[in-house]
Structures are given as C-alpha cells and as structure tokens.
Amino acid sequence: MNASPVDALPFIGVLLSFAVLPGLLPRLWHRRMGTIIVLWVALYAGQSVVLAGPAVAVAGLWQAILVDYVPFMAILLALYALGGGILVAGGPWGRPAGNVLLLIIGTLLAGIMGTIGASLLLIHPLLASNAQRFEKRHLVVAFIILVANAGGALSPLGDPPLLVGFLRGVPFFWPLTYLLVPMLMVAVPVLAVCYAIDRHLARREAPPLAQTLRLRGTLNMLLLLLLTGAITLEGFWHPGNIRLAGAAIPGEQALATLVAGFCILLSELFTPRAIRQHNRFAWSAMREIIILFFAIFVTIAPVLSLLHQVDLRQAHPALWFWLAGICSALLDSAPTYLMFFEAAGGHAASLVTPPSRLLSAIASGAVFFGAATYLGNAPNLMIRAIAARRGVKMPGFALYSAIACAILLPIFMIMSLTIFR
Predict the structure, then answer these.
(1) What's the number of domains the chain is made of?
(2) What is the spatial distance between Cα 97 and Cα 254, in angstroms, rounded to a whole number?
C-alpha cells in the first residue's frame, strides 16, 4: 500500500519539534521532550493500526525497533562510551595553528574510526585546550563539518551511509577512490576560513600555556578495534537471519549489536573514573539523541515510501546530489543514502562501474550535507550537547543551519559545476 502525505505527519512533527521547540519554548522542551515525542509516536502507531490493522502495525513497529533502531543505537552508544574513555590531554592545541592541526587529525581519523568515534575522542581536547578563550563556537562548527561529517567520506567505517553501501555490495575502497576529491573540496576551504577567524580572534586573548601531550585509555582503544572489526565483518559474513518474536534479524547484525553491548559493559566497569571526569562524560548527553532516533526509525517508513514513488532514474547526477543532500540534512544521512541507493536500482555492481557518477552524487550528498543541520548526522547533536556542557553557547537549530549553509552551499555549487556536471 502506497503512503500518503498525511501518513508522514508524525515524522514531520518529530523533526519540527526538535528543530523549533528548543529555541522557542526551551523550558517546556527540556521538561517534556519525552512526552512530546511519545505523542507523535503514538499518533503514528494509531495511524498504522487504522490503516493496516493491529497485528501488522505491531509487527512493523517491532521490526523497526529491533532490526533498525537497536543495532544502530547500540553501536552509537558503544562509540560514545569508548570515545569518552580515551583521554587526549595537552598538545599544541589552543593556538590557531594547533587548532587547525587538531581538525586535520580529526578529519583523517574519522575515516579510520568513524565520525562518532573521532568526534568523541577529540572534541574534549579541543574544548579543554581552548577553555580560556571567550569565543570558540567557530571551532565547534568547523569540528562538526569536518570531523563529524566530511572526514567520514573515505571509508565505510567512516560514516553510517557508506557503511550501508558497503553492506549492500559497494567495495571497501570505493569511497577512497571516488569521494577523496569532494572531501578535499569541503575540508580545505573550511580549514582556511576557520584558521582566519581563529587567528583574528586569538589576537585579543593571551596564548595558552604549552602542555605535554598525554594519551590514556588503552582498554577503550582495544575495544574500539574490536568494535570496528565486528562492524567490518558485517560486510563479509552472512550466517542468515535470527527470528525473535516474529522479527528477522541478520546474524551479522546481531553479533555486532552484542559486541557493542559487551564493549559498553567493559568500558563502564574498567575505565578509570579520572578519565571520565576529565572528559566530563555523562550518559545524560545522549538522552536527546536516543529519543530523536527512536522517533525517526519508528515514524520514517511512510516518508521512505513516498520518496520511493518518485522516479529519478533518468535525472542528472547534480540533481541526485542536491536531493540526497537536502534529505540528508533533514532526515539523517544513513536512511537517506539507503533510500536513494534503492531508488537508483539498488545494484551495487552497476552503480560502482566507472565513472560511477550517480553513486558518487548520492554518497556525496548524503555525507557532506549531513553537516548542514544538527539532524543531518548522529554526532552533530552529541557534539552540541558536549560543547554546551562545557559552557559553550552553541547556536540554535536555525542559526546553526544558517551558518553551516553559508559556508557549505557555495562549495556544493562548485561541486555541482565541476564533479557532477
């Protein structure tokens, strides 16, 4: 059965709630966020019961939660726990050149350990080394664009949408081959603008004291390698589905979820309290992310159904780039990539055939537009929450989007005229 626009209202309501209420009614939002989102989910569940019947509605919700939401959130929480259990202290950061160096390192690490892991590892030393600075929001915005988004473009481990493609047959090194140039087109100007702004602002303030670089958290580093291996294994090992109360869970996905839970348990039990305290680690920072993605995964089905009804197979790659990008900024990058990947035929062998312009456009839009809003990629909200906990007055949803788009849209236009022409 095809979905109608009315069916997408709960999903739209979820997005508008997260986008508007924190700035418009902050006290109500922080006190009643869970209640508001539960009401939207309840509305969606009621619609499903009316349209498909109780049995089908419950089965669909159970499948979405167990197969889509739980594995995604387990990995997200594991990366959050492990990143918060690794201490990077000292180093040359705090000065304009050092801050840019940290952003470069974070951009490169994002392709190796994922945008979530790299973000949680390096956002703390960035903020700690610049704690004496009066203005540091520009550093956090650049960090979100580069480390939490663009840097993940070079491998399937880097960003969730590319992992989705890898699990559907896209070769492991395809992103490095086809997304390196677009990634540099984003990274180089953003680094240049950030350095210019930081250098201008730093002239007004005393330079920080030099500190020796220290690295602690060996257990969490090893657990991060274990988790990375489990995620990588999903692309090669397919033992079949596991049935649980009617839901079909791929065996490799179940294993990765269990490994993620194991990593969280060990990290919580054996990470020294001093490391957690230094990183100002708190599970409460994940509350908004947990609720947001629960609501997204539960209510997104009608939106995907509506977009699947649009035939874009003959469209120009630049159009795919912009459509995938806009959807990524509003719907989150991973489901956007999956939606457009399937809309383009869903056959990795044909999509990766050189010059692979169509898949390059889809992947670039999904990855790079993720920085345009706080909703575009999972680490964005976490970084905002961590920065706020450290006293940084982060811009609201609308202001952040305006700043990010002012930086990124000219770059995306150049991409359209050069790479995806």
Answers:
(1) 1
(2) 44
